[in-house]
Specification:
heterodimer, A: 672 residues, alpha/beta, Rossmann fold, 2 domains, eight-stranded mixed sheet, two-stranded antiparallel ribbon, 11 strands, elongated, B: 101 residues, alpha+beta, SH3 type barrels, three-stranded antiparallel sheet, 3 helices
Chain lengths: 672, 101
């Protein structure tokens, strides 16, 4: 007899080992008990709110030790609110958004005596995408699963729930988004759902933290759910050959990687098992869901308007125009004019110079190092707080609005055909838009794409042609302030042509083809102000913390080079390239040198040079195409490997100087 | 008829999804063989937008061209349909087709 069957006789459920179990769900006929030695039970004081939270996002979480604590894994379809549970349980914030792929890596935190792990949204435990593989590895090793489901889309979500029941994992179901279900006229018979699944089902509204206390309590009584009855005889053959019942199911469903771990040939029953599971879920849904009439028609119509090309593209242009006006005009000129010119230039810098002068005199090397034209203190503070802070704050605010309202997935639908021409499907537009925020994070979010080919094309395009938030803010400021409408139009045209051209080339020379779009769209929602501000400030703070180190180091290097005469030597060495080929001032050399560490550092230095005419266009095109920053290079190295990263790095340097030079020479011939 | 050819109409029943991997992915999100969808709309020259109860699913053009469907006009009337997997309480939509639940 199989190990699981043996354990069932022992009645070794999670609830059995807890000291004070309240009236929960009685074990229904057919419900599995927890196999001994596999999942560990939660202690009675487990999952206390915010107790010792120390979550660190790391995709190594699946393999890193949990110090012997039981692991509670949050599992659910995309955009059902898993991260809100994680935030509440651990006190640690992870991004909450309204597009598939928000959670791209495993986030791990502690709550009392348990480790809580947040996973990317998935529709099933399998390995169709890199995200799913990451989630699968964590789920396989879970002691308890909290399955978060969307009450307004229960028929869809229950497929994963049933699969978790089939895997024999002790679990609790959080019936989330009950408010949205009410609005849509969906009624769920939770009692019937408990009877069908054999596990506790708690109604929750995660954005209001309603029902979280009950969920915490219920997790201590978690128990395996009722599997599909037809499954048992088929699983029996595999269960004795693997460590966990869940692994047996995955092998039976044809998971090659799990099968290879055990040296087994994968079973070929996925089609059959999925169909049987769907039949059971539909029957279950028919019993527990009552669909009445409710709101939602307007949002659905609005969604259609955003996705139809005739209306969708004009709206996209309008959105881009609003971003440009907000970021390039309102923030970059009005606000930055005040913060950099009035506050930093008028008060802070003079104060700091006086301060340094009072300690070290106002003409020596020390003064030059700390408060000179490249002074470590003056330059870092002015750049970071006077210039970049308002730009990055403004940019992340806009991104948070876009992420939360559900526009990005609709943009994926709108651009699907266009993206097809560069070897991607519409879904790739999401990492590319996120790349405007930070290429480092966006490179990881390419995991949501269906094939390695697409992940490589998207990463290469991002690294080569997409400017990041701080850089984009400065580019917008330079184009709007020093360039004007024609330079802006020329810049956009060059970047679009390059994006399309490089994409076409990569598509042509990469074997395979773009995978088909199959995207379950999250509903359009009004962004929650609290989440928008929270996310904006957290991302901005995170940017400042990271950038400050690089800016301090960069300023120090510049300052030392300036004092020692090294800067002039570098400028002379790079003169043929910078002044001859690119027709930029010799000081631009230092910008490109620093740009290898942080892209925005290069942009900031060029911004300071107060360029005009064709130089603005040349400088902005070159700096956009220039190498991704050090952090991005490291992530790309990890995600895509050494050869790919080396090609991207060398390619971006070559492309930047080639295109920038061609633009400069064409402008020279045209007498501009 | 394929999902792509269905253009802007519904309800439809999904008859066949030829590719095994796609079939598995569709089954997970509820768009399995035998499932009824409320409507399908080709978005310009791009993908097909499938509406199914509270779900909206975007299906790439090439994929939509491989999925076989059959129209269910007269038999089903969208989300408030007695033929749907999930029964309904409201009869407002059904009156359009002379039926009530």
């Amino acid at each position: 007899m199989s190990e699981v069957s043996d354990q069932r006789k022992e009645g070794n459920s999670v609830g059995d080992v807890l000291p004070h179990v309240t009236a929960g769900v009685s074990s229904p006929p057919g419900a599995l008990e927890r196999p001994a030695g596999a999942p560990r039970p939660l202690q009675s004081d487990g999952l206390q709110p915010h107790s010792g939270a120390s979550a660190v996002a790391a995709d190594e979480a699946s393999t890193s030790p949990s110090q012997g604590k039981p692991i509670v894994v949050l599992v659910g379809n995309p955009n059902v609110g898993k991260s809100l549970f994680f935030n509440a349980f651990t006190g640690q914030y992870v991004d909450v958004s309204n597009y598939p792929g928000t959670t791209i890596e495993i986030a791990r935190g502690t709550a009392g005596d348990v480790t809580v792990v947040d996973t990317p949204g998935i529709y099933g435990v399998s390995a169709f995408t890199a995200e799913e593989r990451v989630a699968r590895e964590v789920i396989r090793r879970a002691d308890v699963v909290l399955n978060v489901v969307d009450a307004s889309n229960l028929e869809r979500d229950l497929f994963l729930t049933q699969q978790l029941c089939d895997m024999g994992l002790p679990m609790v179901v959080a019936l989330n988004l009950m408010d949205e279900a009410d609005r849509r006229g969906v009624k769920v018979d939770a009692k019937a759902l408990v009877e069908e699944l054999g596990v506790e089902v708690i109604s929750t509204v995660a954005v209001k933290r309603a029902g979280f206390g009950e969920v915490r309590e219920a997790l201590r009584r978690a128990r395996p759910g009722r599997p599909n009855p037809d499954l048992e005889p088929r699983l029996a053959r595999w269960e004795t050959r693997v460590a966990r019942r869940g692994d047996a199911l995955l092998v039976l469903e044809g998971d090659q990687e799990v099968a290879a771990e055990y040296g087994l040939e994968p079973g070929g029953a996925r089609d059959e098992l999925y169909r049987a599971r769907r039949v059971r879920v539909n029957r279950l849904a028919a019993r527990v869901i009552r669909q009445g009439t409710g709101a939602g028609a307007f949002r659905s119509r609005l969604g259609g308007v955003l996705m139809r090309p005739l209306t969708g593209f004009p709206i996209l242009l309008l959105v881009l125009a609003c971003i440009y006006f907000f970021l390039g005009v309102l923030v970059a000129q009005t606000l930055v004019g005040f913060t950099e010119g009035t506050v930093m230039g008028g008060y802070v810098e003079p104060f700091l110079r006086r301060l340094v002068a009072s300690v070290a005199g106002d003409s020596g090397t020390i003064f030059q190092l700390f408060a000179g034209s490249y002074g470590v203190i003056t330059l870092t503070i002015t750049y970071l707080l006077g210039l970049l802070l308002p730009l990055v704050l403004g940019f992340y605010f806009l991104m948070a609005l876009l992420e939360d309202c559900g526009y990005l997935p609709r943009l994926a639908a709108l651009t699907d055909r266009l993206m097809g021409s560069i070897g991607l499907n519409g879904l790739a537009v999401i990492p590319m838009i996120l790349g405007l925020g930070c290429v480092t994070m966006a490179a990881m979010s390419t995991r949501m794409l269906g094939s390695e080919r697409e992940r490589k094309i998207a990463t290469a395009l991002m690294a080569l042609t997409i400017p990041c938030s701080a850089q984009l803010g400065i580019i917008a400021a330079v184009l709007a302030g020093q360039g004007g409408a024609w330079v802006t139009a020329a810049y956009l045209a060059i970047m679009i042509v390059l994006l399309g051209g490089i994409g076409r080339l990569l598509d042509r020379f990469s074997p395979g083809r773009a995978s088909d779009l199959l995207l379950d769209l999250p509903p359009l929602r009004l962004p929650r102000p609290g989440n928008v501000f929270n996310k904006t400030f957290r991302k901005t703070w995170s940017f400042l913390k990271e950038a400050a180190v690089y800016f301090l180091a960069g300023s120090a290097v510049l300052s030392i080079l300036d004092v020692s005469g090294g800067l002039a030597a570098i400028q002379r060495a790079l003169a043929p390239l910078v002044t001859g080929w690119l027709r930029l001032p010799p000081e631009s050399a230092e910008a490109f040198m620093l740009g290898m560490v942080r892209r925005e550092f290069a942009a900031v230095r060029l911004y300071d040079l107060a360029l005009s005419g064709s130089s603005v266009l040349v400088a902005m095109v070159t700096v956009t195409l220039f190498v991704p920053c050090l952090a991005s290079v490291l992530v790309i190295l990890k995600e895509r490997g050494r050869t790919f990263t080396a090609l991207v790095w060398v390619g971006s340097v070559g492309l930047a100087f080639l295109v920038g030079g061609v633009v400069a020479q064409v402008a020279r011939l045209a007498g501009w | 008829m394929t999902l792509l050819e269905a253009k802007r109409r519904g309800p439809l029943r999904i008859v066949r999804i030829p590719d095994e991997r796609t079939r598995a992915q569709c089954t997970r999100i509820g768009m399995h063989e035998g499932a009824t969808v409320d409507s399908a709309e080709v978005l310009g020259g791009g993908p097909v937008l499938v509406r199914r109860r509270n779900q909206e699913i975007c299906v790439g053009r090439q994929l939509a061209g491989s999925i076989l469907v059959e129209p269910l006009a007269g038999d089903s009337c969208g989300p408030a349909c007695p033929l749907a997997a999930v029964p309904v309480e409201c009869g407002r939509r059904h009156r359009r087709f002379g039926r009530r639940t």
